[in-house]
Design a protein that fits this description.
The structure holds two protein chains of two kinds. Chain A is built from eight helices and eight strands, in the order ββααβαβαβαβββααα. By secondary structure, chain A is of the alpha/beta class. In chain A, the strands form two sheets. Chain A has a four-stranded antiparallel beta sheet, covered by helices on one side. Chain A has a four-stranded parallel beta sheet with strand order 2-3-4-5. Chain A is globular and about 60 Å long. By secondary structure, chain B is α/β, with parallel strands linked by helices. Chain B has two domains: 258 residues, Aconitase, domain 3 (2-Layer Sandwich); 179 residues, Aconitase, domain 3. In chain B, 33% of the residues lie in helices and 16% in strands. Chain B is built from 17 helices and 18 strands.
């Protein structure tokens, strides 16, 4: 088992209403020098979060004391750019278990699913609704129900369904990862390999 | 049933289909480097697993390596630690390893093709999003995360849903001074950085057919910058000529068998795509980016779009221009610059150095410019010397550095200082990509050369005709 199970998450959220947030912003390359998966949460959004001297930038959402929670709401095309899984690790290590956006970059989304962060893609309209609700009340609670594939604003009951393939859903519900699956079919893989010409 | 080239290669690698889930997808070739592999090996160790087919994985050090004094011990202890980890892991599991100083060392997406490891019809992955480069040979190649690196090491497979299919056709003749980089930046500027997300792209049309293998690699390399997982070009005689006789390419009868198969790797006439675009070559001019993602590019003679012309969010656009220190409506030409970077897996090949040299020949580097010219590999470096390009560069006041990813992602010391402008042949102009606070203008080697000798953004065609 590689990560915590994900069933129902009820939490407040941090709103980051910027589009095209790339993985170089999520974790700049100079923090990719570790040989272990440790301490990445400290450098999540490093250059947006801290000044050059290491003091926090007070206007950045993660430094704003009125926000809290295990959900990050991102703008459209969240996680574009580099394939660095360190970006998903940073998000996880900071304490997020879910990222909600109206559109995710492909590799980042995949990496999230592999490390136990649920990427929830909602419509532009529903994303707007969430941003508006948090702007009105920073303590807005959101419920993400993986089994029901539903995300809900608890105060108003407004909700939307989201998609996830059945296989990944089972994995996240149980905290399994792909290696657990692949290890079990190694015989098939060996047979297949013999048919490959090079 | 009619198939695209992507279908043909993908379907030949599906070990098993999972209902309402991804395909178990077999990987022929796996590249690893020092930054995204250590945690994967750690994962293997923690689970007590070994590497299933060590001969299918190839290690090279590139992301974190210095580009000067490579014969000396690496100064940064964290970088040295990663390089050691790669070397030790490769040794422990019997994986071939081209470390720092090895004559075959270089950027992973440059050395793979150089040694004939990259082949048509193959599936190729690496913990690096620019793995899409190898699609130039008619391979399915894409970047993966570290969890997937671990999967490939342990089982030679990853779990992938099959992406949708897109074809991008570019026909006609490219103008003088318009390169493969400009074609790619043009397409990205039209599609945006999310325009091909969820798709695998096939590039078709005479512009790509007429391109060199180096040019095709540049185009496929940049597929990820429009959100595509990868891009590919059907192999042809040019592809086969490039591959033949390289260290790892098939020999003798194997070559003949391979050729018979490779010649079937083209999209059937009546095959269909989920999305298709067509562009005219004559509409493309040398490109330059003005913002903080590769989709924010335009022809070099144009002006930065006004916020009203932009599709996306106003705040995001203004944030980008503010970071770059540019105003809407401003022209890019004659804008003073501070740095020039020639190199990376996008434009660090011999053809790129030839192009750069064609402009700087007989001219001098501008005094206000710091130039980093970084070959993609030792083989490229050797060719630069062999072909007399080094003499041209030296005469013009430039120095050649040693191979590596260098200032493309600035993990080593090659960092552009805060607030400074760099014209770069690399692939990303994200905030801080080339060093904290750095401002990147992506462009072709010709545009980079023109900037290097004039000290400002200059249309290379002005220098080609004079």
């Amino acid at each position: 088992m590689a990560y915590d199970k994900f069933t129902i998450l009820k939490s407040t959220a941090y709103p980051l209403a910027i589009e095209n947030v790339d993985t170089d912003q999520i974790i700049p390359a100079r923090f990719l020098k570790a040989t272990e998966r440790k301490g990445f949460g400290d450098n999540l959004f490093r250059d947006w979060r801290y000044n050059k001297d290491g003091s926090p930038k007070t206007d950045f959402v993660l430094n704003n004391p009125k926000y809290s929670g295990k959900i990050l709401i991102g703008g459209r095309n969240f996680g574009s750019g580099s394939s660095r899984e360190h970006a998903a690790w940073s998000v996880y290590d900071f304490g997020f278990r879910c990222v909600i956006s109206s559109f995710f970059a492909d590799i980042f989304k995949n990496n999230c699913l592999n490390v136990g962060v649920l990427p929830v893609q909602v419509s532009e309209a529903f994303a707007e609704k969430i941003f508006d609700a948090i702007a009105a009340d920073a303590n807005t609670e959101i419920e993400v129900n993986l089994e029901a594939q539903k995300v809900m604003l608890l105060a108003t009951g407004e909700s939307e369904n989201f998609e996830i393939n059945g296989y990944k859903k089972e994995n996240m519900l149980h905290g399994f990862d792909d290696i657990d699956y692949l290890e079990n079919i190694k015989g098939d893989i060996q047979e297949f390999e013999k048919s490959r010409p090079f | 049933m009619s198939k695209t080239i992507f279908d043909k290669v993908w379907d030949a690698h599906v070990v098993r289909k999972i209902k309402d889930g991804p395909d178990v997808f077999f990987i022929d070739r796996h590249f690893i480097h020092e930054v995204t592999s250590p945690v994967a090996f750690l994962g293997l160790k923690n689970r007590g697993l070994s590497v299933m087919y060590p001969e299918k994985t190839f290690a090279t050090a590139d992301h974190n390596t210095p580009t000067i004094n490579q014969h000396l011990p690496v100064q940064d202890p964290l970088s040295a630690n990663q390089l050691n980890a790669l070397e030790n892991n490769a040794k422990e599991y019997g994986i071939s390893h081209w470390g720092l100083g090895d004559k075959n060392n270089g950027i992973v997406h440059v050395v793979g093709p150089e040694h004939g490891i990259t082949l048509p019809g193959a599936t190729i992955v690496c913990g690096d999003s620019h793995t899409s480069t190898h699609g130039a040979f008619g391979a399915i190649a894409f970047g993966i995360g570290t969890s997937e690196v671990e999967m490939v090491l342990a089982t030679q497979c990853i779990m992938q849903p099959k992406p949708k299919k897109m074809r991008i056709n570019v026909n006609g003749d490219l103008g003088v001074g318009v390169t493969s980089k400009d074609v790619a930046l043009y397409i990205i500027s039209k599609l945006t950085t999310a325009g091909a997300t969820g798709y695998f792209v096939e590039y078709a049309g005479d512009v790509f057919e007429n391109m060199s293998m180096e040019g095709r690699m540049t185009v496929c390399n940049l597929s990820i910058e429009m959100g595509a997982r990868g891009g590919m070009i059907a192999p042809d005689e040019k592809t086969f000529d490039y591959i033949e006789g390289r260290t790892y390419s098939p020999k003798g009868n194997d070559w003949n068998t391979a050729m018979t198969y490779w010649k079937t790797l083209k999209t059937d006439d009546d095959a269909t795509f989920d999305k298709e675009y067509a562009f005219e070559a004559s509409n493309i001019e040398p490109m330059i980016t003005y913002g903080t993602n590769p989709g924010m590019g335009m022809g070099i003679s144009n002006k930065i779009p006004n916020v009203g012309q932009i599709k996306g969010g106003k705040e995001t656009y203004e944030k980008a221009l503010n970071y770059m220190g540019f105003d809407e409506g401003q022209a890019m030409q004659n804008k003073a610059i501070d740095f020039v970077f020639l190199g990376s897996c996008t434009n660090g090949r011999i053809e790129d150095f030839r192009a750069f040299a064609s402009i700087v020949k007989g001219r001098k580097k501008a005094n206000n410019v710091t130039a980093w010219l970084v070959p993609g590999s030792h083989i490229v470096e050797a060719k630069i010397k062999e072909e007399g390009i080094l003499d041209i560069l030296t005469e013009a006041g430039f120095e050649l550095r040693q191979p590596g990813c260098s200032a493309c992602l600035a993990m080593n010391d090659d960092k552009v200082p805060a607030g400074k402008y760099a014209v770069s042949t690399s692939n990303r102009n994200f905030e801080g990509r080339q060093g904290p606070g750095s401002r990147t203008l992506l462009a072709s080697p010709l545009v980079a050369a023109a900037a290097a000798v004039t000290g400002k953004v200059t249309d290379p065609r002005d220098l080609m005709y004079s």
